[in-house]
Write a structure and sequence with these properties.
By secondary structure, the chain is of the alpha+beta class. It is built from eight helices and eight strands. It folds into two domains: about 130 residues, 2-Layer Sandwich (Muramoyl-pentapeptide Carboxypeptidase, domain 2); about 100 residues, no CATH class. The structure holds zinc ion (ZN).
């Protein structure tokens, strides 16, 4: 079944879609950058919990006499796709996944200027972890590609762990599925799924501890069953999910 009668409407210009719910907001942040002045407005957007985490890390570094400068934060769907093409076609050295697979698109990843932090990278990992950031590589080696990238996973970490446990198949890597969940949560279109509203529900079910399988935007028996297991209102599952997510992950909505 579909979600009510109001199926997702794709708005191509903004690459956002419509659901009668509250998405996790993207809010502006004033933060130093590697460019002249603060991070440019089109990049300086993130979720409320990510903003709090960035400002907390910056404050910790300030206390130590150092600072935090960013080179990247939010990327639109189209900016991510362009970064991916630049990598594939050799114009950019650092790996960039295709649109739909980066936490930057969810407003949940920052790229930092390693020369700004003052402390050794291993020490920065401790500071960042205490504020809710997860590095994307496995050892604090500043020579490694992506040593500058940190994710504020929030509740989407549950999607990572769900996928890593094998319950969501192997079509997409656990990191990709986590990014899909984060992107769906802010209402941006996922090219890889069939119906945006169903993908939003599936990711929400996983974040609430349910077992819908992979995020594919198809309302199959497993997805329906997982919603019923959570006690969802099957007449209005999107509205039910909206309320449940807002109540469960208050800080991600700015509460
Ligand atoms: Zn990055």
């Amino acid at each position: 079944m579909m979600v009510g009668k109001r199926v997702a409407e794709v708005k191509p210009r903004s690459r956002r879609y419509f659901l009668p719910i509250t998405f996790t907001p993207l809010i502006p942040i004033d933060i130093a950058s590697i460019y002249h002045g603060p991070l440019p407005k089109r990049l300086a957007l993130c979720t409320p919990d990510t903003k709090a985490a960035i400002l907390a890390v910056a404050g910790d570094l300030n206390t130590l006499g150092f600072g935090l400068r960013l080179s990247d934060l939010f990327r639109s769907h189209d900016a991510q796709q362009q970064a991916h093409l630049d990598f594939v076609q050799g114009r950019k050295k650092a790996f960039s996944p295709a649109a739909g697979g980066s936490m930057h698109e969810a407003g949940r990843a920052m790229d930092i200027d390693l020369s700004s932090i003052g402390v050794p990278l291993a020490k920065f990992w401790e500071i960042a972890a205490a504020r809710g950031f997860t590095p994307i590589i496995d050892k604090p080696d500043p020579k490694r590609s992506e040593s500058w990238h940190f994710d504020c996973r929030g509740s989407h970490d549950l999607v990572y762990r769900y996928a890593a446990s094998g319950k969501a198949g192997t079509v997409a890597a656990p990191y990709t599925q986590m990014a899909q969940s984060g992107i769906a949560a802010i209402g941006v279109v996922l090219d890889a799924v069939q119906a945006q509203d169903v993908a939003f529900l599936q990711a929400g079910v996983i974040r609430l501890g349910g077992d819908p399988g992979k995020i594919d935007g198809v309302m199959g028996d497993r997805t329906t069953g997982s919603l019923k297991d959570l006690g969802a209102d099957m007449d209005a599952p999107a509205a039910w999910m909206d309320a449940k997510l807002q109540a469960s992950f208050t800080v991600e909505y700015g509460g």
